[in-house]
Design a protein that fits this description.
The chain has 18 helices and twelve strands. By secondary structure, the protein is an alpha/beta fold. It has three domains: 4-173 and 391-406, 3-Layer(aba) Sandwich (Rossmann fold), CATH 3.40.50; 176-231 and 275-388, Glycogen Phosphorylase B (Rossmann fold); 235-267, no CATH class. Strands 2-1-3-4-5-6 form a six-stranded parallel β-sheet, with helices on both faces. Helix 15 (322-329) packs across helix 17 (371-388).
Amino acid sequence: MSYKFLKVTTYYPPVLEHFLKKYPEIDNFNFNEQLNLLLAEAFGWANFFQINLNQIGVDAYEIVFNADSIQKKWALENGVNEYSREKVFLKQLSKIKPDILFLQDTFSYSPAFIKQIRKEIPTIKKIIGWLCSPYKIDDLNSLAACDFIFTCSELFLKKMLKDGLKCFRFNHAFESTLLPKIKEVNNFNEVDFLFVGSVFPGSDLHDQRVKILERLLEEGIQMRIHTQIQKTPNLLIKQIAYRFYQYLKKYNLGRVYNIMPSAKRLAQYKEYPVDFKFSNNFYKSLDRKLLYGIDMLKAFSKSKLVFNSHGGVAGDYACNIRMFEATGAGSCLITDYKKNINEFFIPDEEVVTYKSIEECVEKVKWLLNNPVEMKKIAEAGHRRTLREHTFYNRCSEMDSIIRKELVL
């Protein structure tokens, strides 16, 4: 039994902005050329499903829903005169006629639009959603509109099952075909210690991550930090609104906040909104250039040690993609200990783990002072990732699930 697979995703706006700046002549290329250039940037999952499903005999395709310049080129080449993301996407679906539709950014598509897809594209047998971030009650409708959900997190898996959703674990991975590209024309300088990632305030987000980074810097550990520091828009207004909501709750009037969507979002805040106050050490180590995709992997490959800290929403479970990106690129990874870390790596043999800020500081110092041992760990982690944590491995697992679901 064979089937046709299509994954549709959305990219971070800064990634698309960077791409357009890198290729100012992009309009001179046809649709396929433009799409291939964007996918070659290797952002997120890029077209790794397509590459590896093709290898195991599945006819697979990739669409970037919000890459407007590229989608407009497709519309022009296919006689679609009036552009909208939804209209062009539906036309692409009608042309490709997939059996399986994978919505990587599930919440970008309303339940009504998912229903419309099913109605207009009758070839689609299963719609798969993806979730690896917290979801609210309002999001359940979009998740429930899918036939089943893949998630990287055991925590989210348990929550969705409790909410009556059909779902499966699907772990992140590393794309091994990128290794030659990582090595070629790599102009990044060698560094001892590197962090690449986001720093958003909130206990569910990156409060703990920032605390650890600040402590490492305070201890005199040299590291390079690639992130962008952004101020929360209308922070003062949000703080006032949050305090007012807490006042209303005190008198059982919190439901008033459900009247307006913007107020309803504030009612879901778990804590008083604030911005980080970074130290001078942090700013001295900061490189505001965001690294994505192949550039990030090249930077990892030139760093002896890479720092990782899961967002607060991960709970007690390791699940983020950084574990596989850093080890796949060949760096030694130091990551926060989670109770399922042994599913992926042997702690302190293939990656280095820490259970507290103090332990993280101690182990980072030891690793940097023992480069031979650090390199051994890096090599062991690299071997483990290439053996068990590639997108080829994951796509084989996914193919097995899909085939079972198709015959139910």
